[in-house]
Amino acid sequence: MKITFPYMGSTIVYYKIFELLGHQVIEPPRPSQHTINLGVKYSPEFACFPYKVILGSYIEALELGADTIVTSGGNGPCRAGYYNEVHRRTLQSLGYEVNIIVFNSIFEDIGQFWRNLWLLKGKNSWAKLAGVLFTVYRLAHAVDHLQTIVEQKRAYELKRGSFTKVFEEITERFHKEAKTLADVDRIYREGLAMLTAVPRKDVPEAQKLRIGIVGEIFVVMESSINMNIAEVMGNLGCEVTRSMCISKWVDHNLPNFFGKSNSKIIKASRQYMEIEIGGHENENVGSIIEYKYLGFDGIIHLMPFACLPELVTQSITPQISRDHNIPVLTLALDEQSGIANNLTRLEAFVELLRSKKLHKEIA
Ligand code: SF4
What we know:
Layout: E1 2-4, H1 11-20, E2 24-25, H2 33-42, H3 49-63, E3 68-72, H4 80-93, E4 99-103, H5 110-121, H6 126-153, H7 162-177, H8 181-196, E5 209-215, H9 217-221, H10 229-235, E6 238-242, H11 246-252, H12 263-269, H13 281-293, E7 298-304, H14 308-324, E8 328-333, H15 339-362
Parallel strand pairs: 1-2, 1-3, 3-4, 5-6, 5-7, 7-8
């Protein structure tokens, strides 16, 4: 099998699962305008934006020689539930022979889940598979924690780009050197030390701005299609925290007895949404409220074009914003979006947050 996967956020995590199990891995290229153009060309016009980018990404990986796609499934009212079948048919109609292995929730079809694991396990023992999964779980937490530090401290770096450069070095080391749990832990510790050594300016607490980024999982996690928003906001002097990352997604999908669920956040959303409508809108609504009570100054809500769940979130955010006195800026993303179109809005939003904070200090 020559395995590929959707390009979304910390791709090193998916790469390592397959590499450590001895599979040949074809990493899809980071999504570019070419990827988006390919996806748009072969997708139904009103498919949601992530559907199109992922399709483009699959085509690029298949052109590089991949023959198997491993991905997650979905259910409920959001479109992720039929993504894979429509992707499969589109790719076949384009002449690609591809096997798509879809991991749905273990609670949905336990038999299929184990059959998929069996395929990925190959000739490895179950003990080896468990060891690889645990190593990669730790890797996901390590990478996400280091990235969180970067996104929070970048606002204060003395030389622009220094945190990004160090983080890229650390990621490269994970790529090349991480084979065992001990490697992951060692590179993580060394990465922490490298980030601590990045020169920063001292900023008084009262002048710091904290922004939470919520929204649909793909656009929150994937910087190549969200205008690199975490870095843009960092360069505007804001600490950034994203509500979604791969380690949180894994934790939230573990059985309850692991004690990692996001039930507190979901509970907070219930006053606005009594039922689940697909996607991550309950997490988004709950996260906005949580961020407010953690002392954040504002929220950026990312919404892909043609995404029903996020359209619903968008319609509720003015009410949440009024009830909890926290500014929320929604940005819709599609193949036409670019930072040039949105930078002025982001700068104006930051100015609004600064003046709100200043007036609060004076009052
Ligand atoms: S949450 Fe929205 S963008 Fe994401 S798969 Fe569902 S419909 Fe598409």
